[in-house]
Specification:
The protein is α/β, with parallel strands linked by helices. It has five helices and five strands.
């Protein structure tokens, strides 16, 4: 194993994926790629709302990737970042086919009914990826240890 692909979006589940990947990386001796996939802005918004939506989405994705890369640097882990646009599942699976030995994604923590109704990027990635997938569950705040 040489490379972890970590899908992040700034959510609690995304943070859990970063934490899990950074905990695994030193023992595995792997590099890490953090990927944030933003959905395309609807062109029907018209100008200037379309441009503003694009800019805000890109800025958010950059911040999420930069924060993850800073955590990796603090831990002494070699990492890079990717910002992609499109369907999150398709983009994550496609990137993993080219660069990943393990995909790490976060779980939103929806129950079975909400997950079935709303869908889940993590479960869809796990169903379609040829690469192994690790789903990092977020730990509720009340269960976290205080250091």
């Amino acid at each position: 194993m040489k490379h972890l692909l970590v899908a992040i979006d700034g959510s609690d589940g995304g943070h859990a994926a970063v934490e899990e990947a950074l905990a695994l990386a030193p023992d595995l001796g792997v590099t890490v790629t953090f990927v944030s996939v933003r959905k395309p802005a609807p062109q029907s918004l018209g100008s200037p709302f379309y441009e503003r939506s694009l800019q805000q989405g890109l800025e958010r994705a950059r911040n999420v990737v930069e924060q993850a890369m800073e955590l990796a640097a603090e831990a002494g882990i070699e990492a890079d970042g990717e910002i992609l646009e499109g369907d999150p599942t398709d983009e994550i699976v496609s990137l993993a086919d080219n660069r990943g030995d393990l995909i790490v994604v976060g779980s939103r923590g929806h129950g079975p009914l909400a997950g079935a109704l709303l869908g889940s990027v993590s479960s869809t990635v796990a169903q379609h990826a040829q690469t192994p997938v690790l789903v990092a569950k977020q730990v509720p705040t009340r269960h976290r240890q205080v250091a």
